Amino acid sequence: MYLFSFEKLEVWQNSRVFILEIYRLTIAFPSHELFGITSQIKRSSSSIATNIAEGTSRNTNKDQAHFLTISYSSAMETLNHLILSKDLNYISEQEYIQCREKLEKFVIK
């Protein structure tokens, strides 16, 4: 099977693992948050990898940089949702730390 260029990127691979972790984590969120923070954190975390993938299909450095900037912004949005989830006791301190460390692993690199 052919691998597209984004699939070879470590940052995309790590963000994909992170998305799966977010999806597993939000299963335990309250049902009344289904269309609130649960939806928001799923969409923002998915947007990280999606924009990395989309950026690799662009022909100019400027376009590629634009999509990486959007990806970074989505990572910061996701971090904000994680902080709020911890503040609302939807996730434990330990779950927050684990997710934050995973996010930092590929955002800071």
UniProtKB/TrEMBL annotation:
NCBIfam families: four helix bundle protein. It comes from Flavobacterium salmonis. This is Four helix bundle protein. Transmembrane segments: none annotated. The lineage of its organism: Bacteria, Pseudomonadati, Bacteroidota, Flavobacteriia, Flavobacteriales. It holds the Pfam family 23S_rRNA_IVP. Gene3D superfamilies: 23S rRNA-intervening sequence. CDD domains: 23S_rRNA_IVP_like. It comes from the Bacteria.
